[in-house]
Amino acid sequence: MSGFLSARGASYHRRGRALVDAVSIDVQLGRVAIVVGPNGAGKSTLLRLLSGELTPTAGAICCDGAAIDRAPPWLLACKRAVMTQSAQLSFPFTVYEVTRLGLDGIGKGLPAHRRDQLVAQCLTAADVLPLAPRRYDTLSGGEQRRVQFARALVQLEAGRSVSERQALLLDEPVANLDLRHQLALLDAARAAASRGVAVLVVLHDLTLAARYADTLAVMRDGVLVASGAPGAVLSGDLLSEAFGIALAVTASLADDGLFVTPSRWIKEELHRSNS
Predict the structure, then answer these.
(1) In what order do the strands lie in the sheet with 5-14?
(2) How many angstroms separate the Cα of 202 from the Cα of each of 43, 83, 161, 205, 259?
(3) How many Cβ atoms are within 10 Å of 232's Cβ, its own excluded?
(4) What whole-number distance in Å separates Cα of residue 61 and Cα of residue 59?
């Protein structure tokens, strides 16, 4: 397996239904892989398989060349950090305390001042340092997402004292975020990849996916229908079939990036221009 995180023919069945069906994918160090697809396509289940949270009912998942289910939990925590779609907390933790959870079990060997430094550094990277004394449950949904991102970054930084080969897995990280923070979070994920981290992101925004992905994977009904460079994968026909709506892929006038839009919007704009 060539990726730091790899799935080979991985399937996950629940109640007789294949949520993920024979998927093979590599998440490579220093690269950003983004998974897109409609609701129920199996994106989050695939991420949970690659994180080690779920065990495949068929196929294999490997992390750093070894079966992921054979890695001790403490070592796995050093090698990969995960930001899930939602995180429910039953206690009135502050933002600082939630972020510091990323150090649990793996940051005990660090000096106290270094632990505090890491938390402040990652709160700053997620643009939530001013919220540090606030109670987590008083924050907006978008603010909570940014705190969870800071927690994942702290875990990565602490884990580097054990393993410099790491992965960051983000499930819908920009949900509930305004545009500025969407771009800032994805910029931070890209920066992690530039430091050698293998980054896997589940996104719904196809244009953001096209801009930030080194590898773009498209899923539908639990199956990986395409994977490769965004320019090779993004076609109107493939996306239209995957999402069940007519989509068009157009080039940006400002640069060589791609935009994905509903075809009817283009037709409506042309109609307005001609009328």
Answers:
(1) 17-27, 5-14, 58-63, 66-67
(2) 7, 10, 27, 9, 18
(3) 10
(4) 7
- At residue 250, what is the residue type? T
pLDDT tens column, 173-232: 999 899 999 999 999 999 999 999 999 999 999 999 999 999 999 999 999 999 999 988
pTM exceeds 0.85 for this model: yes
- Please name the residue that has the structure tokens 């991985």: 10
Q: Which two tokens stand for residue 210?
A: 């096209």
Q: Greatest CA separation found in the chain?
A: 70
Q: Cα–Cα distance between 264 and 197 in angstroms, integer? A: 39
> What are residue 222's phi and psi, to 5 degrees?
80, 0
Cβ atoms of residues 156 and 95 within 8 Å: no
Phi then psi dihedrals of residue 139, to 5 deg: -85, 160
User: What residues have CB less than 8 Å from 25, skipping those under 6 apart?
Assistant: 3, 6, 7, 33, 46, 50, 217, 224, 227
Containing 268, the helix (H) or strand (E) segment is helix 263-274
Nearest Cα to 140, choosing from 181, 99, 176, 88?
Answer: 176
The two structure tokens encoding residue 249: 């892929």
Of 87, 103, 195, the closest CA to residue 144 belongs to 87
Cα 36–41–47 angle (5° rounding)? Answer: 65
More confident call, 130 vs 250: 130
pLDDT digits (tens, 9 = 90+) for 82-105: 999 877 777 889 999 999 999 887
Identify the three-state secondary structure at position 31: coil
Cβ atoms of 60 and 9 closer than 8 Å: yes
